[in-house]
Amino acid sequence: MDTTTPKKLKFRDKEYPCCASLTMGIIGGKWKTVILYHLMSKKQRYSELRKSMPTVTERTLSLQLKALEEDGLIKRKVYTSKPPLKVEYFLTDFGKTLIPLIQSIADWGDYVVEKYSK
After folding, report:
1. What proportions of the chain, in percent to the nearest 5, are helix, strand and coil?
2. Which of 4, 36, 94, 100 is buried most, with the most CB atoms less than 10 Å from its CB?
3. Measured between alpha carbons, how far is 103 from 108 in angstroms, rounded to an integer?
4. Exposed, middle or buried by CB within 10 Å (0-12, 13-18, 19+), for 64?
5. Residue 45 near residue 87, CB atoms below 8 Å
6. Each residue of 67-101: b (16+ CB within 10 Å) or e?
7. In terms of Cα–Cα distance, which of 65, 63, 70 is closest to 94?
8. Nearest CA among 65, 64, 61 for reference residue 89
9. Tens digits of residue pLDDT in 93-108
10. Which pLDDT score, from 0 to 100, does residue 82 have?
11. Cis link prior to 84 (omega < 30° from 0)?
12. In a 3-state reduction of DSSP, which class is residue 90?
């Protein structure tokens, strides 16, 4: 009988039981993947992201942006050279590794609407 415990995966001081759990822990939830989708092609300001996702609350958007930044997927750049303050968000190199996954999720959504919506 095998009594060894399954290997846990660690990422940023958190443990995950499997690779799928780790992935969903980082990009899971209602808004993280949507934020990443909107940042795939260009840098965006907070207000641009809000307009792209009109049903997200400001608090939720702020918290999700902070979580994505803490996980190293996005970067927040603040321009302070002249008022008003300008803040842009963009994918880091680490975040860009998710582009094929995010694009596949988006493509699947399009497929579902096309083939199964009535």
Report:
1. 50, 15, 35
2. 36
3. 9
4. buried
5. yes
6. bbeebebbbeeeeeeeeeeeebbebeeebeebeee
7. 70
8. 65
9. 999 999 999 999 999 9
10. 80
11. yes
12. strand
* Whole-number Å distance between alpha carbons of 18 and 23: 9
Where along the chain do its domains lie? Answer: 28-106
Is residue 49 a contact partner of residue 35, using CB atoms and an 8 Å limit?
A: yes
pTM value?
0.88
Contact predicate 74/89, CB 8 Å: yes
* ∠ Cα 62 52 107 (to 5°): 110
The CA angle 55-60-11, to the nearest 5 degrees, is: 130
Q: How far is CA 47 from the centre of its chain?
A: 17
Q: Are 98 and 28 in contact (CB under 8 A)?
A: no
Q: Which CATH class is domain 28-106?
A: mainly alpha
